[in-house]
Amino acid sequence: MRFFKKIIATILGKATSGQLFLGCLFGVILGFIPGFSYSPLLSLLFIFLVLILNVNIGFVVIVFVISKILSFIIEPVSFYIGQLMIDGVMQPLIKWFVNTPVLAFAGFDYYLVTGAFVLSVILGIIFGIILVKLFAQFRQKMAKLQSDTVQYQKVVSKFWVKLFCWILFGKSVHKIDWNQLKDQRLKHPFRISGIIIVLIIIGLLFLFQAFLQTQMVRNILQTQLTKLNGATVDFKHVKIDFTDAQLSIEGLGVADPDNLTQDRFYAKELTAKLNIKALLTKRLVLSKVVVNGVSTSHQRKEKAVLYTKLEESPALIDQKSTEQKIEQRTQQKEVNTYSVEKYIKNTQKYRQYANDLYRIIQFISDKKQTSKGQEDRLETKQQVQSYGYANVQAQFLIDKTPILTIQKLDVTGIQIKDSQRIFDLKAQNIATEPGLLNATTKINLTDRQNNIRAYLVDYHQAEKVNQFSMHLTNIPAKSLFDDIQFHKGFALDANDMSLTTNGTWQMKNDEVNINLPIDLKLNQVIIKVNNVTKEFETLPLKINIVGNLQNPLIQLSQSQLQDILLQAGVSEVKSQIKDKLKDKIPKELPFGF
User: Fold this and answer.
1) Mind listing the pLDDT tens digit for each residue in 94-128?
2) How far is the C-alpha of 214 from the C-alpha of 234, rounded, in Å?
3) CA–CA separation, 339 vs 350, rounded Å?
4) Could you say which of 3, 11, 86, 220 has the lowest number of CB atoms within 10 Å?
5) Under a CB-based contact definition with an 8 Å cutoff, are residues 215 and 36 in contact?
6) Partners of residue 491 on adjacent β-strands
7) Three-class SS string for 146-178?
8) Cα 336-340-341 angle, rounded to 5 deg
9) pLDDT tens digit string along 542-573?
10) What is the 3 state secondary structure string of 93-116?
11) Which residues contact 448 (CB under 8 A, 6 or more apart)?
12) Where are the alpha helices (DSSP H) in 230-295?
């Protein structure tokens, strides 16, 4: 019993003015910090200070609970202060914290962490001073009452007085000498047992660092990939072998935002080399990433959650507006310019392809910011509405190295849904902030029959235009013509086709603008114009796709088909073809097959 009481007295400590002030300050700070996952460094720092310094732990716990409740009530105020600090004159200092090893774990890249810490220090000092003064008055009053036995017994018999004294002093109020306490000073500022406990905790953290760092790696991957995907990205198992710096992931599931019960990308296994040193700055650098057992259709065990609602692109505008732009852009009589949406039957499928490609390009393209403008502040408000105050991060503070970097990626055996084709993908220098890498991003996709090859390059330099190339050979043409809305009286069919394009693209103001000159060759072609049928061994066409990726314009020279058909047509139908061909040819050829 004596041993137990001694432990209680040691943990609670003495109740001097300095102890109460520090206990109030530390309790408020710990209560206002959003959580260990947001700011592990601050959380551990002040927990260690509470243990090492001879402050009253019981009092700290009470202040912590009250402060935590208060922090939720005034969360918008904390967030606003964080905005003033991060977006204002303190940005250089905060940026240094965010990009410095170990200090990066303070979590000052989160608006709420920064604002809550500043506000908690201010409130902790104010409440601490008030509390010290109130305690001094209470102590003097109790010292005077102690000489009046009857009156003193009435006061100390009250429940709240007994509880208050036990929490502050760790002993019964009847055993307190208030006159002696009035002149008491703290002789030992440090708690020996607290130092021992801190050393034990540090030892345990060292022993379990693999688990903690694994959780950190998991959180970085999950957060960044979920932002890219727009819906849940999760894993069954994540393991790190620190001896070989090897990362292993089993069951990587990338949910489909349009069908939350399905994974649109699922990998049985992922292995990578891990840069351990980069973890000190909360950065994840992976090299030699190999992904195996990939499927583009996988049933999820648990329904996914949307990270953010994918808004309809402003490029997908109404038909009238599109046609007005076409008329303004078209200057040559021989080249017709058409909108994809008007002439492709399955526009919903096309939009899905375009949006998926747009999200990938948006992820790999440089989005580095150096300051916050009016549009950025509006975006911050939208993020608050979607993700809550605690999860809004000032990623523009990231400097020197990106949050997530994949130096080399090798994805093998990609099985496309409803297709017999198997693809392999190789990529280099993919990052959340690619401009910080000072390296070119390259993505190469091929099928194992070598009939489909696509190559994308992003230089991350304003003076260089990015490249895109695609080569298709011996591709069945049925899916192509099934999607085209031909005019009445015209029909076009082919057995297979080949396509080559070497074009350029650029991302500007959140729009991906493309310029893709395409050489299309159709094989074993049958064309019908007003019941006149003609067969061709091959039919070459030149097409140009320009404009916004999500609503491009397709330029097709009308004279190409005219010349081919007129040269091949029999004499009695030449005039008929010449007169009516202009209104009968297909208005466009889709490239999203």
Assistant:
1) 999 989 888 988 989 899 999 999 999 999 999 99
2) 14
3) 12
4) 3
5) no
6) 528
7) CCCHHHHHHHHCCHHHHHHHHHHHCCCHHHCCH
8) 130
9) 888 888 887 788 777 666 666 666 655 544 44
10) HHHHHHCCCCHHHHCCCEHHHHHH
11) 421, 422, 423, 424
12) none
